[in-house]
Design brief:
- The structure is a single chain.
- An eight-stranded parallel beta sheet has the order 3-4-5-8-9-10-11-12.
- The longest helix has 21 residues.
- Helices cover 36% and strands 15% of the residues.
- The protein contains ten helices and twelve strands.
- The protein is globular and about 55 Å long.
- It is an alpha/beta fold and 325 residues long.
Length: 325
């Protein structure tokens, strides 16, 4: 795959791998297949492997650590801190205080089996702590050699500017896809002005844009997407209309809807790196085939007409309070 440049000189292959669903929120993942998927991704040239300390209350970091143990040089490991979990994995708020930054990093390093994290994100902004203090502590981790590059996740434009003034931010990670385009208004222009790369999570609309879900009951009982507004009731039906329009365009190109949706994200700029998540090798291969799809101006216009900004029904999360505008 081709390389893409994020901020601060960090280069990665054009598609990464999101590992969240291997350990949390979604159902049906098998550990052995998840490990095999990570290793297959590395074999295929994927570099950016994305996890977080709250995915499975640390279980996902341990899984990633096992998967890359004998091929560390192939992986650019990104993890996150800030969304605290209690002893049973229950949500316990957000922390960005310096003491917790250091504590969380040391715990992640141990779980991953690494001596340095390549890209370390603040997962959600702690509104009770000035971002300058949080990023100042993250910068100390860089100075100590525990972290190479710093990132933010779901931060607003003002927070990004303030953080970047303390220490260069290499990447902003935020949801971006054909059905989540709000970042185009202010966030993307801000990071591009500052030379910060953009890592797009959920580029397949949490799987909705693949067309695999035709009704809410297609999701298993334990799947957290059942609680997401976009997957519920009338919103599901309205969003299915959007997917069907994308499907029609995909049929014309002899590709899958998911591949076309991912190709659209890949065409948003050489500073955008999507990290579609999957725990299966067959889905990985389907996703990676999207890098071969070329979209001309007419193709892009047709896709944007099929899924214009603001067309998606429902909020991204049931509780948007942790997302900065």
């Amino acid at each position: 795959m081709r390389a893409r440049r994020l901020g601060g000189g960090l280069e990665v292959a054009e598609v990464g791998l999101g590992c969240m669903g291997m350990s949390a929120f979604y159902s049906g993942a098998e550990e052995s297949e998840s490990v095999a998927t990570i290793q297959r991704a590395l074999d295929r040239g994927v570099e950016l492997i994305d996890t977080a300390d709250m995915y499975g209350a640390g279980a996902n970091e341990r899984l990633v650590g096992r998967a890359i143990a004998d091929r560390r040089e192939q992986a650019v490991v990104a993890t996150k801190f800030g969304q605290v979990r209690g002893p049973r994995g229950e949500p316990a708020g957000v922390r960005g205080d310096p003491e917790y930054v250091h504590e969380a990093c040391d715990a992640s390093l141990e779980r991953l089996g690494l001596d340095r994290i390549d890209l370390y994100y603040q997962h959600r902004v702690d509104r009770s702590v000035p971002v300058e203090e949080t990023v100042g502590a993250m910068a100390e981790l860089v100075a100590e050699g525990k972290v190479r590059f710093l990132g933010l996740s779901e931060a607003g434009a003002d927070t990004i500017r303030r953080a970047h003034a303390v220490h260069p931010i290499a990447a902003l990670q935020t949801e971006y896809s054909l059905w989540t385009r709000d970042v185009e208004a202010e966030i993307l222009p801000t990071v591009r002005e500052l030379g910060i790369g953009f890592v797009a999570y959920a580029p397949l609309g949490r799987g909705f844009l693949t067309g695999r879900f035709r009704e809410p009951d297609d999701l298993d009982e334990g799947d957290s997407r059942r609680n997401h507004p976009r997957f519920r009731d009338a919103n599901f039906a309205r969003n299915l209309e959007l997917v069907d329009r994308v499907r029609e365009l995909a049929v014309e190109r002899s590709v899958t809807p998911g591949q076309l949706a991912l190709a659209w994200v890949l065409h948003r700029g050489d500073d955008v790196v999507p990290i579609p998540g999957t725990s299966r090798r067959d889905h990985l291969e389907e996703n990676l085939a999207a890098v071969e799809i070329e979209l001309g101006e007419d193709d892009r216009a047709s896709l944007e007409a099929a899924a214009p900004r603001g067309a998606t029904a429902g909020e991204r999360y049931a509780d948007m309070s942790l997302i900065e505008g």
